[in-house]
Design a protein that fits this description.
Layout (H helix, E strand, L loop, with lengths): L7 H16 L8 E4 L19 E9 L2 E6 L19
Antiparallel strand pairs: 1-2, 2-3
Length: about 90
């Protein structure tokens, strides 16, 4: 019986799938962006560093210059991911 060999493209595609799965796993950090706490306006990241007027906003999205659907409290945002439960990763 003839032995079947895998093509290198098949191996590469399988490796890329494994890499994508690893990146989206439970341990991933939630998205964060800089925003003003009172107005929820999106700010440049420099405003969240070294005494700037902004705070990090986790999760959610930004549109029309404002952030929404997330929280300024990192622990309140569930990142989730492949094989994760809402109560945490594992």
């Amino acid at each position: 019986m003839a032995e079947r060999r895998l093509r290198s493209s098949t191996v590469v595609l399988g490796g890329m799938g494994l890499l994508a799965l690893t990146i989206t796993s439970c341990g991933s950090e939630p998205d964060r962006r800089c925003a003003d706490r009172s107005t929820q306006r999106a700010l440049p990241n420099s405003e969240c560093r070294s005494g700037g007027s902004g705070s990090y906003y986790y999760g959610g999205k930004s549109g029309d210059g404002k952030v929404q659907g997330g929280s300024f409290d990192k622990s309140a945002v569930d990142r989730g991911g492949f094989g994760c439960t809402k109560s945490g990763g594992g």
